[in-house]
Amino acid sequence: MQTVLFHETVFGPIHSRRLGVSLGVNLSPTDGKVCTFDCLYCEAGFNSQGAGRSGLPRREDVARQLEAKLRAMAAEGVRPDVITFSGNGEPTLHPDFAGVMDDTLRLRDALCPEARVSVLANSTQLHRADVVEALRRADNAILKLDSAVEATMRALDRPVSRSFTVERVVEQLAAFGSQAIVQTMITRGEHGGVRVDNSTREEVDALIEAYRRIGPREIMLYTIDRRTPEESLERVGREELEAIAARITAATGIGVQVSG
């Protein structure tokens, strides 16, 4: 099974297709995965690998490691474009996510004020007021919506909770409105004998309607870039992604960033 884990709490910097020079913050274990989705395309692998033994990092350890890394980068004359919460699972699951966000913003302001703070979140914790308020403090709250068709969302993202639905998450995303960046993975393949494809006209039409309701400041479309645990998934070509993006912008007036 494909499994690529980040074995550090603060990692990189790496070059992100969407964000530039990114210093990563992993609020999940360094030897396992903790997530409320079990996506077919997740580079960290399926949830069945387990959460490991290291546990979630403590707030004070995250701040200490982030400060040390930012100071080391400054000494080398390197500045991150962005500090990005991502890693081996869903960052907003951390019980002190809001406190970690406060620490990160303080360190950013002191040591690299030109950098943006971004969160790659799967939108499953938008029912929590503390998470929502912390996400609003980020420069870029990048929130996932892979499909606006319930069956496709469940087949592709495989949410752990049955209470997580397309209707509910679109309503929660709409509460963010122009503060949100909505991120959508476009891919197709098969899993367990079931066809999974969110690139069809019907799927894009459903996404367009959802984007209209949400009204985000931007949409990010991307496709798989590395091996995935479900090996049948296909990379969608740049030309096709651009065509989908053009349809979305024409129908919604919202700018679409394409990575493919």
Could you name the CATH class? Alpha Beta
Query: CATH topology, what is it called?
Result: TIM Barrel
Structural class: alpha/beta
Note poorly predicted spans: none
> What composes the largest sheet?
8 strands, mixed
What is the arithmetic mean of pLDDT?
Answer: 95
**What fraction strand?**
15-25%
Give the distance, in angstroms, between the N- and C-terminal Cα atoms: 24 Å
Number of strands: 11
What's the helix count?
7
Please tell me how large the radius of gyration is. Answer: 18 Å
Overall number of domains: 1
Percent in helix: 25-40%
CATH homology-level superfamily? Aldolase class I
CATH architecture classification:
Alpha-Beta Barrel
Spatial shape: globular
Following the backbone from N to C, one meets helices and strands in this order, namely: EEHEHEHEHHEEEHEEHE
Structural summary, described in words:
The strands form two sheets. The protein has an eight-stranded mixed sheet. Strands 8-7-10 form a three-stranded antiparallel sheet, with helices on one face. Strand 4, helix 3 and strand 5 (140-144) form a beta-alpha-beta unit. The chain has a single domain (10-259), classed as Alpha-Beta Barrel (TIM Barrel), CATH 3.20.20. With 260 residues, the protein is α/β, with parallel strands linked by helices. Helix 5 (166-176) crosses helix 6 (201-214) and helix 6 (201-214) crosses helix 7. The protein is globular, with a radius of gyration of 18 Å. The mean pLDDT is 95. It is 34% helix and 22% strand. The longest helix is centred in the N-terminal third of the chain and has 17 residues, at 59-75.
